[in-house]
């Protein structure tokens, strides 16, 4: 498939009759190996960051960055999905770039529900006079809870003095005083990353408060290479504030920050523009996890992320589509430890296949490509699990001496993927259990009940449905049914 990027600033309104349906049918016909069944992937074209996630008391609303016309970064729209259970979805009105403050795309942001309406905070992208670079501004779109776009307006026309045009990803929240605020990523004129804090004096007016300061054990002020703060996000769990940030330019630190871009979580106390971090962790230790966003329902702090990174080339772009979202997962503090767990809603998709109690190689009578695997009884002993092995390909997990390895070196990797290595490791005090979700070309590994997670894409064509394991007492395999998406 030839990829034509010559007209990448097309908005949805330019689609010819039947064009998008034709693109979707081509995508479905071309890709019989990699399209997911229970993860959110683009209806056509390119997907990146999750956006605008909010719970209205009855339904969950989520958007994602979308370029409909090709598997590459182009004119960004917000594709809108509504669900009550994360299994059955309806589509709402797409947020399409149509105004002078979003001439070259609608970039990321968050949402908040006020008085029965959804207010989406987003960055408009505009080409600068040089015809080559871009600047961002901040806006609000108002939606009804049944998915109808009602209005939109600009609230911050440009970055404040002292900052460049890299100024994006507003995330709204209510502070302890009951005021509507938002944080937004920025870049200082010296090209250092920063996070700005704004106060909404009304739903149409924003006032700059200043820069967010990072203290405690946060190393952001000492990370001279960080040139942009993307996707700031503030949430709470059991008395702790959770401040997520995707700082561009983080340097690798042993097993941490080895992807093209990585995501930090600061755990501590946030108050009036100051984040005092007691812990700083890399939120996910896999290959493909970036730009996460959280929202809350009546009981849970829920997060989704982009299973992608930058403009990294992957095999599916030759099949007409690119990237997907992670499974939604719950974030919760247990004592001083952050735990990440898959939502219980996904239990209804599980269809038990087999329980294996003896190490060895097994052919699975069922669809291992769409599966859920529980590995129990590891008891901190040497362990290995090999999946989809044939003469050419396999995906492997191995644990020894406190280190869990994910190895995708014997899968299909583009040169772009290989630049960042084919292995990821997690250091553990012990390994007791693994919970694994596989969905054709993505694997999400929850370690020890969610104390660590590894999210990664992998590409093996014409997979053999087999597995080999050593060093565990019991392996339970279930097949996962598909969600109802489009």
UniProtKB/TrEMBL annotation:
Gene Ontology annotations of biological process type: sucrose metabolic process
Ranges in a coiled coil: none
A GO cellular component annotation in the UniProt record: cytoplasm
UniProt GO MF annotations: beta-fructofuranosidase activity
Gene3D superfamilies reported for this sequence: Exo-inulinase, domain 1, Glycosyl hydrolase domain, family 43
Domain Glycosyl hydrolase family 32 N-terminal: 39-342
Compartment annotation: Cytoplasm
Keyword Zinc: no
Keywords carried by this UniProt record: Carbohydrate metabolism, Cytoplasm, Glycosidase, Hydrolase
Catalytic activity from the UniProt record: Hydrolysis of terminal non-reducing beta-D-fructofuranoside residues in beta-D-fructofuranosides
Pathway terms, separated by semicolons: Glycan biosynthesis; sucrose metabolism
EC number: 3.2.1.26
Chief place where the protein resides: cytoplasm
Transmembrane stretches, start-end: none
Catalytic EC class: hydrolase
Highest taxon above the source species: Bacteria
Start and end residues of each Glycosyl hydrolase family 32 C-terminal domain: 380-477
Family: Belongs to the glycosyl hydrolase 32 family.
Summary of the function given for this chain in its UniProt record: Enables the bacterium to metabolize sucrose as a sole carbon source.
Protein name (Swiss-Prot/TrEMBL): Sucrose-6-phosphate hydrolase
Record organism: Photobacterium gaetbulicola
